[in-house]
Amino acid sequence: MNREWKKISDFEEILFEEYNGIAKITINRPRYCNAFTPKTTWELSQAFSLCREMQHISVVLLTGTGDKAFCSGGDMNVKGRGGYIDGDGVPRLSVLDVQMQIRRLPKPVIAMVNGYAIGGGHVLHLVCDLTIASDNAVFGQTGPKVGSFDAGFGASYLARIVGQKKAREIWFLCRQYTAEEAERMGMVNKVVPFDRLEDECVEWAETMMERSPLALRMIKAGLNAELDGQAGIQELAGDATMLYYFLDEAQEGGRAFLEKRKPDFKKYPKMP
Ligand code: S0N
Where along the chain is substrate bound (predicted)? Predict the structure, then answer.
């Protein structure tokens, strides 16, 4: 189906659009197989922040322009000592911030993988909540071949998904895997023909939009908490605090302070 995506804001290296409560963030550097520079990751961070704030956005799709690549990782043209270097001369590894934003966004993120998901691009799809891939998609890590590695989510989260042996194979051998192989490994939720990819992702997004957004938020935080230790507990605990603040019991504490009286908490239930 040809749907009308409406631009949300102007960026240089990404497209940021919406349709019917779904945001679509597209890495738009097809000349470089959608490799990311510090500017790309800065723009991705801005877009994900906006997705967090915008009340009418329920689900986010992350993809790349064209039919060749989702994302081929860090742009080798700007890889220098200490990280990726843009005009200001400062080396950065700022895709790590984007990974964290995707994991902590309290809304589902679907990786819409339309071709190569390689290197840092492979890690980007991994950290999304769901991955739907076209049948031409190719997955793999290249770090040990090209002088890099991601020992964070790219290692531990990958191993949680595909198992330790397979994760070591993926990193140590730097082979490429088809979409079907990635699906069998549990890295991909569904493989569809290329011309079905966007429709499939929108259908999954629309199904999730029929579910309780708060329930999805809590279950995402719960799935993260098990893996993310103290940071994961902080995320889940923040959600619990948010819910507590909706209760009269929490309001009573604040009201009593402002009215300079003792709070009366006795009337509130102590559930078994
Ligand atoms: C994607 C591949 C397999 C496609 O191969 P194919 O079909 O043969 O096309 P090419 O002719 O190779 O590509 C077309 C043009 O695109 C350029 N290009 C492709 N990828 C990149 C890239 N990553 N950077 C810059 N340019 C790229 C090609 O050069 C070509 O241009 P021309 O026409 O001028 O020759 C194939 O292209 C491929 O293997 N690409 C490289 C993939 C790769 O190795 N990526 C890994 C990069 N490293 C990382 O992502 C590391 C991540 C990292 O550093 C990190 C780690 C921990 C914490 C943070 C970070 C961080 O990134 O911040």
Answer: 84, 116-120, 142, 148, 245, 260
**Beta-strand pair 59-64/109-113:** parallel
CATH number corresponding to 6-209: 3.90.226.10
Nearest CA among 150, 200, 189, 190 for reference residue 170: 150
Q: Which two tokens stand for residue 269?
A: 């239930």
Share of the chain above pLDDT 70, in %: 100
Provide the residue ranges of all domains of the chain, joining segments of one domain with +: 6-209, 213-258
Max Cα-Cα span within the chain: 68
CA-proximal residue: ligand 1, atom 28 (nearest): 32
AA letter at 22: I
Name the pTM for this structure: 0.97
Nearest protein CA to atom 24 of ligand 1, as residue: 75
The DSSP annotation for 210-230 comes to TS-HHHHHHHHHHHHHHHHHH
**Confidence check: pLDDT of 214 > 90:** yes
If you measure from the C-alpha of residue 78 to the centroid of ligand 1, how many angstroms do you get, rounded to a whole number? 11
For 217-238, how does the pLDDT look when each residue is reduced to its tens digit (9 = 90+)?
999 999 999 899 999 999 999 9
Which architecture, in CATH terms, is 213-258? Orthogonal Bundle (1.10)
Please give the pLDDT value at position 117.
98
Listed residue (161, 170, 159, 167) closest to 118, CA to CA = 170
Atom of ligand 1 nearest to the CA of 73: 50
